[in-house]
Amino acid sequence: MTLVTPPADPFALPPKAAQEEDALLRARRSAGAVDKQLRKEAWNPRDKKIANDRTVLAEKLAGAYTGSDGMTQESVTLDDGRVMTRIRTGAGTTFCAVKESNGLTGGRDPFRDGIRTKVTTCGR
Q: Environment class of residue 96 by beta-carbon count within 10 Å: exposed (0-12), middle (13-18) or buried (19+)?
């Protein structure tokens, strides 16, 4: 005697987990189309521009950028009124620029004498 398997039920629903996964995948796939449609229908012109849209000018400017050397500067006002700026370059060198205070010597005339800036090594 031979056993014959009955044909599959054409009206049977797939398992519930597969339905939820399919709905999630469909939602993810349609997100781009929904975004395009909303941008097309937007009244505000700024909403119509895609955020990561690259123009020719932006591409050229990005290509010309060589990168930062990692320079940092830190300004500190000293007790006697002078301003010291510590500059650290990407190469590892450190130097300080100290700008003299106008009130240090009893009111120096900045138009006649000028306020000098001295570039020195930084002390601890």
A: middle
Which pLDDT tens digit goes with each residue over 15-66? 666 666 677 888 888 888 888 888 788 777 766 666 666 777 777 877 776 6
Distance CA 21, CA 117 (A): 68
User: Helices (H), strands (E): how many in the chain?
Assistant: 3, 4
**pLDDT at 67 (0 to 100):** 67
Cβ atoms 89, 99 nearer than 8 A:
no
Q: How many residues does this entry show for the chain?
A: 124
118's CB contacts (< 8 A; 6+ apart) are 97, 98, 100
Write out the E strands in 1-124: 72-77, 83-88, 94-99, 117-120
Q: Which residue has the tokens 């590892």?
A: 92
Cα–Cα distance between 41 and 48 in angstroms, integer? 8
